[in-house]
Amino acid sequence: MNAGKKPDLKASEAASGVAGEDVKAGEDNALASNAVDAVRKAVEELTELLRGHGPEAASALKEAGKAAGEHIDDLAHDLKDEAGAFSRARLEELSAAVRKNPLAALSIAVGVGLIVGLWNNRGGRS
Questions:
Q1: Cα angle, residue 25 at apex, residues 20 and 27 outer, rounded to 5°
Q2: Within the chain, how many helices (H) and strands (E) appear?
Q3: Which residues lie below 8 Å from residue 105, measured CB to CB, with a gap of 6+?
């Protein structure tokens, strides 16, 4: 089959003929048979066309998928690095605040510990 040849349009012509006219049963069967033949021919032509370009298309899709995966991997690494830098900066700020006000930091820690301890004990006595 010729890869550059356009598919036969008899199927759509047959379908429109069936939809547009009130035909007898014999004509209906002939139109249906023509439609099936036209669809079969179109599928054969499409199969032949894909046979010629299938490996190239599969290779192109594979390369595109690989490039997309690498891009996503790079973005994930960048995000991981940014998150690490952000958390280190917040930890340094917290450490500086504790060094500047150790009594306040200790009081907050004791208060939070007391509240959590009371909350846990109260939940156990139900």
A1: 65
A2: 3, 0
A3: 97, 98
- For the segment 8-37, what is each residue's pLDDT rounded down to a tens digit? 444 444 444 444 444 455 666 666 777 777
Amino acid at 100: K
Q: How deeply is 14 buried, as exposed, middle or buried, from its count of CB atoms within 10 A (0-12, 13-18, 19+)?
A: buried
Question: Domain residues of the chain, as ranges?
Answer: 10-97
Number of other residues whose CB lies within 10 A of the CB of residue 8: 15
- At 44 the three-state DSSP class reads helix
pTM to 2 decimal places: 0.40
User: Which residues make Cβ contacts (< 8 Å) with residue 45, sequence separation at least 6?
Assistant: 1, 5, 7, 8
Nearest to 11, CA basis, from 45, 42, 44, 50? 42
